[in-house]
Specification:
The structure is a homodimer of 600-residue chains. Chain A is an alpha+beta fold and 600 residues long. Among the domains of chain A are: 172 residues, no CATH class; 89 residues, Immunoglobulin-like, CATH 2.60.40.1180; 100 residues, no CATH class. Chain A is 37% helix and 18% strand. In chain A, strands 3, 15, 16, 17, 18, 19, 20, 22 and 23 form a 9-stranded antiparallel sheet that branches. In chain A, strands 2-6-7-8-14-10-11 form a 7-stranded antiparallel sheet. In chain A, strands 1-4-5-9-13-12 form a 6-stranded mixed sheet, with helices on one face. In chain A, helix 6 runs antiparallel to helix 7 and helix 7 crosses helix 9. Chains A and B meet through helix 11, helix 14, helix 15, strand 15 and strand 21 of A and helix 11, helix 14, helix 15, strand 17 and strand 22 of B.
């Protein structure tokens, strides 16, 4: 399947338009401000600054911000944003070495170690700069950075692929691979694809430098990629690599590599994914752990990892379209990814726990600072601030994941209010999602439509030009040949539903979550007080949904109350109560407190 | 209440006799062998050994072994054991410095730092050596070590109390305080009590050296002892201090200090104690954490901490007797403490989790080695091997916790088959505990008996000289004036019972444990396969107890089974099963596997 790029898609209203407007008005500027204050933008000048010494990954922070700006500037005429972007681009280009190399840390603080430390993110940073350059070019915003980054890519090609004179073969943090594929697609220059292919295939075949006390899977060195059978190691690194593997498999028609990607995807979604679409169960190594290990209160579920999972879904769908890929994309987007940002667009979560106990948080000061433990409130910037600009670029480019084509088939994969033209047809979607299940799809012209049926639906009702019609569903899509103007009114009935985790997920045994359409719901102290683990929901009958400042679902529940004693022979008494649930992605916007997804 | 020392008590049979025989035949020698192999005994010669470089706490390991040997030699004529003990004593005495100082690490490797590093256990080691010396003297085994340790104590008194020329005031790890009280009680020398008092009262009043990144409570420096209101910090350090505080409060009649001890005890047993009597919820700092934080799978519950809690109970009962102290002692002894040793008497647990997931264990290699994470199998020796000799000395001296007197009242606090003489009366106990609830108490002579009624009993039946008699129960004791020979047949009816944790213990919400008399039961994979978190017990009706190689209780239960999917809208199906429970203390004797205490 080919997807329709967001630049050919107009977001016309609804929830995603709200998200993008917040992003354009608030987030992009607030991320800029905090990056500027912390020295990241000044660092692009490559001048020693002992007060704000560069970090090894600052290039990538600025690059993802530039990529976000490119996506915004593709559709708005925000002169102020353009000016900020131009200044950063100018600094990077001016600081780039004659030979093409650019890195704001190594050039200034460790020039003697350029391409000597594979754990220090040099090629990762290069990858994000290349992605930014491609985005700026594709958005018609800037050509200078692309020219500069082609020179850098040529330099990398020369040193790693031709001369092989570097101290390592593959970067500790994958990213360059997927960026080189983009550069190849934009420039048509095959050497970039060859280099991506080289970095992918060489991985796991050398005994290279890693962090002490870390499993080789942390750097994805545990095995050559074609022998990978399970998702292992640092979740973001793993998924960035899988994305590139899927890209190369598709471009080169490599069936074996595509099958590896499908196997890894199956391992993730069947054994290692939170109900929120989050991945990476452990803060130790920010890593995938073992099958069915999905602790809620210590979930790592990095925002970047959920974004990477969504991108991997997109790449798999491009190899061979399956409704499941879009269902996982939807789960990750409306739950883990969106939870990464505060309601005001200023704060961000790096770690996205599925359960919060404020008492534990208050106690674990040491754990938090040392080990990136879950925190109950979003912050504006992190020392390692990869997630905020990853969110801004994702929200801005979400239009890319709505439509697709394959031969003469047209796919609607996400119900996001938008319009586009495919072939001769114009398609408009007007959707209530994620808070409602109704969507109208209007087509002008001819198209063989395939409308995805969300797995969460409680029954599909369809009217075509006002007349009820029984949908023809195959492989998770409603198929409908449209010829001439047509209006399809879809109602994917939303019933709040219990979700049960597999019996092997010991952290969720005997518990259930509540979903409302694509949304995973949670309860917070702000509505429900403390001790949310003690709440039992026996039935969702009579649950009342309401859409105010927050979407809310009020359900009948009961609380277990015990005697004062620490241990007692008396069974707890139950007290009837109304439990207010809100979407998980909206949690932690009303001060600190407890939060719960899995109930008795 | 005054307790009757174990040397005046003969263990006559039953479970504790079995434990002691195993201890005398196997454990004491196996601990010796592993301590010898690892260099601990040779280290007492204070000769540099670069292959087996001493650790700072090795003196205490040998000291606790010597104390155990003293307790054994008080009743057996084990010539071989005597020889091993004599050799160690001779080495210590020969290595002791002229001025009285002794430390196998500092004398050899850092003589320039003697009494300069408060975090390095010097006074802690001195304390254990003093305890060993007192035990050897009281057991009639040896006088040399007591003479040597008096000289050492005098040296400590001189430097810390008189000259105050040391780099610190109090030791990072309490222990010296309680040892000095014992030395005072044995020698009658008041300066040792004064020194104990000094170390207790000065604590928390100075800004002293601690470990970086550790809360001051780790070394019990967070507050002066009289201001302590909650149990904080490293659990063993805290409890060793509390024991000494209770000792001094009793000896000096200090009501305020006694009240502090009672407040700390209440905080522990009402908010911070596992159902097994374990304390210290976190491996970070081996510490008490916050109220109701009792994670099962990551429980630290160090064996030494449960022993220390039992000793604290004993000291509190000596201030003012309360049945609750003996109930907590019993809980800690029959559950957490005994779980510390393997069935064959050779292996030991340092950490005693209340839940084990083998899959998690297999994965967490890194966590285990770095952070002393729970392991599913006992080992013979640890790098820091404090627990094994602490267990051997505790099992051997358990007779001290059975009987007590207060004025003309005689107390039977634990039903352990034994006999003793108190005043003019001879008392014999013949008991089934912990596996049964019946006990016979025979008295020859006159005594005002107080027989503790265990809180777990499901009804008390009593016959006096064969005739049923309604027991007169007050404050948790059956009161009975005996004059002449009398036989009291007690039956504390044991019914398997559900226990519920307080609603604030979020890890146990919606779950229940099963107790059988004083025993907390658990299920293991060896009997029940995997996925024990999915097991629901609705009722204990029809539960069948049996006493074979293991005590077993078979109960009707059901397992929850889900579809293969990671998440599903289908509620799990239930499958009836028989769940075999065994005493928690017997877990992990049949290979690795899962273990569960709290069930749905």
């Amino acid at each position: 399947m080919q997807t329709i790029d967001f630049k050919q898609v107009t977001i016309t209203g609804g929830f995603v338009k709200y998200l993008q407007e917040r992003n354009e008005r608030v987030s992009i500027y607030n991320v800029y401000r905090r990056f500027e204050e912390t020295g990241r933008f000044r660092a692009m000048k490559c001048v020693r600054d002992d007060e704000h010494r560069s970090h090894i990954f600052w290039d990538s922070d600025v690059a993802k911000w530039l990529e976000s700006a490119a996506f915004i500037l593709a559709k708005t005429q925000d002169a102020k944003l353009k000016e900020l972007a131009d200044a950063a681009i100018a600094d990077i280009c001016a600081s780039q070495r004659e030979d093409g190399y650019f890195n704001c840390y190594f050039q200034v603080y460790e020039p003697e170690n350029i391409f000597k430390k594979r754990t220090e993110h040099e090629l990762y940073c290069a990858g994000h700069l290349i992605e930014a350059a491609v985005a700026l070019h594709e958005s018609g915003v800037d050509e200078k950075l692309l020219a500069a980054m082609r020179r850098y890519a040529d330099y990398i090609y020369d040193r790693f692929y031709v001369k092989k004179d570097t101290a390592f073969v593959t970067c500790g943090h994958p990213e360059i691979e997927l960026a080189l594929v983009k550069l190849y697609q934009t420039t048509g220059e095959k050497k970039y694809l060859d280099l991506a292919d080289f970095f992918i295939e060489e991985r796991g075949k050398h005994s290279e430098e890693g962090y002490p006390n870390m499993n080789p899977s942390y750097h994805l060195d545990h095995v050559p990629v074609r022998e990978m059978k399970t998702a292992e190691g640092h979740a973001v690194r793993a998924l960035y690599l899988y994305i590139a593997m899927a890209d190369v498999a598709r471009i080169k028609g490599d069936a074996q590599l595509a099958e590896v990607c499908r196997t890894l995807f199956a391992d993730i979604v069947n054994k290692k994914m939170y109900i929120t679409g989050g991945v990476g169960s452990s803060y130790h190594g920010e890593a995938f752990t073992f099958a069915y290990d999905l602790p809620n209160n210590t979930a790592y579920s990095e925002t970047c990892a959920a974004i990477a999972l969504a991108l991997f879904c997109d790449r798999l769908a491009k190899i061979e379209n399956r409704a499941e890929y879009h269902a996982v994309f939807e789960r990750a987007f409306y739950n883990n990814i969106l939870a990464g940002e505060s309601k005001d667009g200023k704060g961000f979560f790096y770690v996205n726990p599925l359960e919060m106990h404020e008492a534990g948080y208050d106690y674990n000061e040491w754990l938090r600072t040392k080990l990136f433990y879950p925190i109950p409130e979003r912050v504006e910037v992190f020392d390692c601030s990869c997630c905020p600009p990853n969110l801004t670029r994702t929200i801005e480019s979400i239009g890319s994941y709505i439509y697709g084509t394959e031969g003469d088939q047209v796919y609607v994969n996400q119900y996001i209010s938008s319009e586009t033209s495919i072939g001769g047809a114009k398609i408009c979607i007007d959707s209530e999602m994620p808070f409602g299940g109704r969507a109208t799809v209007r087509v002008e012209g001819q198209a063989n439509l395939n409308l995805r049926v969300p797995a969460w639906n409680g029954g599909v009702r369809m009217k075509v030009n006002g007349r009820t019609q029984q949908p023809c569903i195959a492989d998770g899509y409603i198929r409908l040949a449209c010829d001439g103007d047509i209006e399809i009114a879809l109602d994917f009935v939303i019933k709040p539903r219990f979700v049960y985790a597999n019996e092997n997920v010991w952290q969720d045994c005997g518990r259930k979550a509540v979903e409302y359409g694509p949304l995973v719901l949670c309860a917070e102290s702000a509505d429900n007080g403390k001790n949310l683990r003690d709440v039992r929901i026996r039935s969702l009958a009579g649950a009342k949904a309401a859409n105010g400042e927050y979407f809310t679902l009020d359900v009948k529940a009961e609380r277990l109350h015990t005697s004062e004693a620490l241990y007692s022979y008396e069974a707890p008494k139950t007290e009837a109560c109304t439990l207010r649930l809100i979407p998980y992605f909206q949690w932690a916007n009303r001060g600190k407190g407890d939060m719960q997804i899995w109930f008795l």
